[in-house]
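Researcher: We're teaching a course module on how sequence relates to structure. For the next exercise, students receive a sequence and then see the predicted structure as tokens, so they can try to spot secondary structure elements on their own. Here is the exercise chain.
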Amino acid sequence: MRVVYNINKKFYPVIVAGASFFLSYYSRLTWSILSSYMPFHPNVTQDSHVFALYFLSYIIIQIPAGFLSDRYQGGKVIALSLIVLAVTSFFSGLAVNIEQEYIASFFMGLSAGWIYPASLNVIKYYYSKEERPVFLGYYSIAWPLAIVVSGLLLPSIALHVGWKWGYYSSALLCLIFAVLAYPLKTYKNFSKINFLVVKDKNVILLSLGGFLFFSSYWSIMLYAYKYFIEIGIQSIEAGFLFSAMAIIGLFSSAISGFIVNKFELKSCMISAIFAYALLTALPAFTHSYLILILIVMAMGFVRFIIVPLNASILILIGKENVGSVTGISNLFWQSSGIFGPLISSVFITNFGFHYFWLMMSAIILISIPFYLFIQMSHS
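Model: And here is the predicted structure for the students to work with:
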């Protein structure tokens, strides 16, 4: 019994922190699927506006969220965020027109934006430097899992129960995990807020490199499902393709920590980004369902190695200011959720989906030099 207790105690923080982050990520993905089933039929431009409003509010509070997560108990920050996220998700399900969805999306981003910095501080508190890459890998399963669940579950919910229940079910889960997250602890940094981290070269490079990478990431997340529908794939099969972009990422996220412990972190990151850029260009050259499954699964495998590597770099260069550095970097990363979809919507409208994939590949390649010049101390 004592062994079981110790195992539960060991994994409880990463499971609850990961689930909380899962819900913050899942909340922004729901629109990508459910908007196709709404009676007011949002168009491509309106899709980009909903995403942009979510990310606008999300990035507004990134720097204060980072600084405050260094100074207050992380579990309380996460719990409060999830409660407000539950309320905004519920109201998104009640919306009867696009204007109401704009409002709901703005407040949804405002509530979700506090979770990532606080949850990374939870991981730092409960796990040693040696354990941390492995548990960050487990934590990062939240990213692909959100895509898998949204792609497999939401089309069925929308078709058989109604699109609103996609939001209502999310709200209920937020309330459950708010209770579970409340007791989680973090280190408290009572020193004066260090605004010098804003000027740190490594923070700037990581922020800009991540901005480019995530510009393509969020654009693909918003438009991939609609692309699959556009080329004639049925809705349920398109949902499976959307999920296939992340299914194998459940495995690659879990093993990413072992990869970091075996190889040099920056080399892993640059190699993975280069491979992901090449894979991203491939959907432009085929409409075959089977080939697309193979391509998007390969994309997912590499992408969800990159995500925990980013988190590892954040903790490494952040040191005692992990929350603050996370807030600053995430300000840039999540602002890409405004930039990417807006530019992509204009690009798709004028040139079509074929060149969309090529543009995304080019943006990913441009991010590599920024990661290349980050200097990492392993002390």
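Model: If you want an answer key for the exercise: Residues 2-372 form a domain with the Growth Hormone; Chain: A; fold (CATH 1.20.1250.20). The chain has a mean pLDDT of 84.
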